[in-house]
Structure formats: C-alpha cells, structure tokens
Design brief:
- The chain is of the alpha/beta class.
- It has a single domain, classed as Rossmann fold (3-Layer(aba) Sandwich), CATH 3.40.50.
- The chain is built from 4 helices and 5 strands.
- It has a 5-stranded parallel β-sheet.
- Strand 1, helix 1 and strand 2 form a beta-alpha-beta unit.
Length: 123
C-alpha cells in the first residue's frame, strides 16, 4: 500500500485543526496510509519546494505569500501534484485555472465536502 502524501497550507489554526481531523477520519474510514504536513504560509511550502506530495490543500489568503503565488511557484517545479484551494471567497476560482487547480472548497470546510474532494482526487 502506498502512502498518500498531503500538504495542508493554512494560516488559521482553527481551520488546520478541523481539516486535519477530517483527514484523519477519512484515513481511518478508508484504511489508507496517509501523511499530512502542515505549512502555516505559502512561503513555507514554496521556498524550497520538492515534488513529494500527491495533494496540496492550499489556502488562498495568507499573510506573507498568498496561495496563488505559492501555487505558481509550486507549478514551476511540479506539474503533477493535485492542487485544491481553500477559500472564503469564491471569486478566486477563475484564477485557479492559471495554475491548473483541480478544485476549490469554500470555507468553512465541511467534512463531507472535503471527503468528496479528496476521494475524487486520490482514490
């Protein structure tokens, strides 16, 4: 069984707690081998990015480097990774086409919506 490697790029600790709990629930229910690494800002993942993730859940609005800029940097090094944006503003969805984002999840993230998005992308 291969390990599903997920990066969660989110600056709000409340969202991090909720999303990691949802991912853990999904991992347990599906019997998956999964790792989740949390990055508190786009800058933290983009600066020294190595193509080692299967899926990146990426907040758009962050303090130092926004998610769109981080996604552009990631795409320079990794054309294969699946990007799913997390945002409270639906208007960003159009910009996601520039970086070939495969999905957008509106905040607050619900367990069912996250389960569906992850299942569509990694199973």
């Amino acid at each position: 069984m291969s390990v599903v490697r997920i990066a969660l790029v989110e600056d709000d600790s409340r969202h991090v707690q909720k999303i990691t709990a949802y991912l853990e629930r999904y991992r347990t229910e599906k019997g998956l081998a999964m790792t989740v690494r949390v990055f508190p800002d786009g800058e933290d993942i983009a600066e020294n990015y190595k193509p080692e993730y299967d899926l990146i859940l990426l907040d758009i609005q962050m303090r130092f480097m926004d998610g769109m800029t981080a996604a552009r940097r990631i795409r320079e090094k990794d054309r294969e990774v699946i990007l799913i944006f997390l945002t409270s503003m639906a208007g960003y969805a159009i910009q996601g086409y520039e970086v070939e984002a495969l999905d957008f999840i509106l905040k607050p993230v619900s367990c069912d919506v996250l389960d569906f998005a992850v299942r569509r992308r990694i199973c």
